[in-house]
Amino acid sequence: MRVERVPFRLISAATAAILLAACGPKQSAPPPQAPEVGVVTLEPTTVPVVTELPGRTSAFLVAQVRARVDGIVLRREFTEGSEVKAGQRLYKIDPAPYIASLNNAKASLAKAQANLVSTTAQANRYKVLVAANAVSKQDYDNAVAAQGQAAADVAAGKAAVDTAQINLGYTDVTSPVTGQIGVSQVTPGAFVQASAATLMATVQQLDPVYVDLTQSSLDGLKLRREIQEGRLKTSGPGAAQVSLVLEDGRVYPEKGKLQFTDVTVDQGTGSVTVRAIFKNPNRVLLPGMFVRAKIEEGVNQNALIVPQIGVTHDQKGQPTALVVGADNKVELRQLATAGTFGTYWVVSDGLKQGDRVVVQGVDKARPGQQVKPVPAQLPPTPASGAAAGGAPAASGAAPGQPAAQPASAASGA
């Protein structure tokens, strides 16, 4: 088999052509375009400050009906769960032994009164006779002493009659207050005792009703400090309005008023009790219900609010936001929030007026990356029209201004 040799000069020429082609000018790739992100520019706005607290309802008045005399219950004169009036008779205890005691006390009083008449007449006679030396001074003194003892017996007899009448009156067990009566603890035929203070029933006044709320001492301290420093203004000279959220999430239609704040901090829980009062005409609120109350404490006139879609959380659970700087580079900010305002977070630290916060295209932006900021197009909120009286939360957020809802003071994100 014959192999033909390729001339060396041809191989060199081909190699040189390949090398020239490899070293030729390359075509440069177009630079990557900066991603477009939607931003809102923060501006101060007026936000009502609301403290949201858990609590439980309690009756305005609670009266335990207990036996005040011993005896057999003859009858019950009310329907369980019904409304009763103050002074209405609830039970009848057998009065026979107390009628007998009253009659005995009256008889003893009559005897003492008759004895007083006799001793008084004798003392008067002896007074004349002792002046004529017809009786001794000792006899006269004895007569006066007997008169005084008879008068004391009359007074004791009257007290015994009063006691017997009181005990007889206690056989009619009446309601001490007007309200709703609960389950009867005794039935006709039961024996009740005054010494054991037998519980017979409980009457509760449910209109109005108290709501006892629990607030941490730290939150109360912060609130008082903000008012003193002028960052918050009180709503007015009247009592703060309180709204109530029931266990099923519905808002109670009646507004309440603050009554007082306890002056003692519970050392076990570090909290204080705040009491509010609510009208309860339809008996919706029952004692012991768990509720959440929102107390309108004041107004923050320089609040910075950020749409919730622009706030995320890091691995430690701290709220963060992406902010576009003056050079259109993204930076990550750690935030501190002071509650919510509709669909917005109220930011107390980490942002300032004029900051551009990324709320759309957050997944495209990274800290240090160059971006193209454009005004965010946020969907309108259902209550955006109701917020027309307040300043807008952020420029670029006009289509979705914050709903006219108070800011929750619970620390948020």
UniProtKB/TrEMBL annotation:
Pfam families: Beta-barrel_RND, BSH_RND, HH_MFP_RND, RND-MFP_C. The keyword Lipid metabolism does not apply. Gene3D superfamilies: 2.40.30.170, 2.40.420.20, 2.40.50.100, Helix hairpin bin (1.10.287.470). Residues 1-28 form the signal peptide. Residues 102-171 form the Multidrug resistance protein MdtA-like alpha-helical hairpin domain. Residues 383-413 have a biased composition (Low complexity). Residues 302-364 form the Multidrug resistance protein MdtA-like C-terminal permuted SH3 domain. It is found in: Cell envelope. Keywords: Signal. Residues 364-413 are annotated as: Disordered. PROSITE patterns: PROKAR_LIPOPROTEIN. This is Efflux RND transporter periplasmic adaptor subunit. It comes from Paraburkholderia sejongensis.
